[in-house]
Amino acid sequence: MFGIPNVGADICGFELETTEELCTRWMQLGAFYPFMRNHNDLGHRDQDPAVFSWTAQQIMKQALLMRYSLAPFWYTLHHQAAMTSRTLVQPLHF
């Protein structure tokens, strides 16, 4: 919408503490962002998958595997965006 091809959010938030449920769901959503990263501010509790329960880790692992399976698709979209100056994800209302 704004011509920025590579967008995404800091998975699980950046400044405040997160919950296991929020981080798990956000990781599932983030698997479909063009740009995905999980990181936070210094001085806050770690929020990488290893600090959560085994169940949450397995769910996050599946989300990351889904993302990796989409790598060829994302690669193609990045190439097209670079060649055409369009965004990777097109809005549904155009």
TrEMBL record:
Protein name (record): Glycoside hydrolase family 31 TIM barrel domain-containing protein
Q: Which Gene3D superfamilies match?
A: Glycosidases (3.20.20.80)
Give a Gene Ontology cellular component term annotated to this protein.
lysosomal membrane
Residue span(s) of domain Glycoside hydrolase family 31 TIM barrel: 1-77
Protein source organism: Rotaria magnacalcarata
Q: Which family does it belong to?
A: Belongs to the glycosyl hydrolase 31 family.
Q: Which UniProt keywords apply?
A: Glycosidase, Hydrolase
Among SUPFAM superfamilies, the record links this protein to: (Trans)glycosidases (SSF51445)
Name residues in a coiled coil.
none
Whether Iron counts among this entry's keywords is no
- A single MF term (Gene Ontology): alpha-1,4-glucosidase activity
Any single GO BP term: lysosome organization
